[in-house]
Amino acid sequence: MSRLPPVVEASDWRWQLRHGVRSLAGLEAALELTEDERRGARAAETAGFPIAITPYYLGLIDPRDPACPIRRQVVPRASELQQVPGDLRDPLGEEAHEVAPELVQRYPDRALLLVSDRCAVYCRFCTRSRMVGGGGGPRSLERLGPAFEYLRAHPEVSDVIISGGDPLTMTTERLVRIVEELRSIPHVETLRLATRVPVVLPQRITEELLEALRPHHPLWVMTHFNHPRELTEESRAALRRLADAGFPVMNHSVLLRGVNDDAATLAALFRGLVRERARPYYLLQADPVRGTGHLRTSVAQGLALMEALQGRLSGIALPKYIIDAPGGVGKVPMTPDYVVRRAPGVTTLRTWRGVEVDYLDPPER
To answer: Which whole number is the average pLDDT over 311-338?
Structure first.
């Protein structure tokens, strides 16, 4: 049987998923690993959080530089075996807030539906490293039945985030069936697809996928670019296809040590996203997942970065800096303190230029 040319194969998202690197041997064949990375990969192979990197995303890694910001996101390190104070298995308390199998509700008006445990790439800072890659794969409609029943019985829920794992690694037919089921619930107004596919598997954003999902708008895409090097020709084209098909795209970036923890990198990332009509939505303080201390920054550093970006980026390019509080009690916006002092009727502010200015309240009536 004849084979397709490699370039055609590589452009098919199914080929990308089938040929992902999933072992120490695969990493050794592609990268010059350090001993720290070898130890991390051995641990991941035996009892740890699994490895998966698509050929496309692997091609973004500098094979000789262990400090490569793409490499740090997906290649295991021995540091994953270390726990530091504050580390948690389930940092967002999702198991405690599970209201039905595969359904998490932490806010009155929205819920999180976990439709698969599979991703195209397993990021080493993953909040759900406790469950993704566990082997269950995409959830059947029968398994999700109790979640749909719960949503039908709770009209206060108007917004459902479809996540996992990554819902866009499922077949289009299976994903559309889930979306149709949710769309049949009258009070569910907004659906969000939480996915890293535009970053790590942009070949998946096909016309077939967009045409199948388009009838179910409003569908928002919540994607996850962390570094400007991820804004390749392929991923930019995927973002344009989504925007042209009417999908609003919002981006969550995770603040990561050695990846994007400097103002110039973040500014380049956020400007690049806006150029492709993707709105920087959140800059997330990395969740305290066990074994990720080597990838997390301090909150003080995050606040300093936001202060450095304020006034130097357009408002549409500046995300909110957020801590998703441990235990699942909700997101907390973090902002630098620009209030110098308060007095009756007067607030003294410090602008991004360092200038102090008084804002006067209107007189009492």
So the answer is: 95
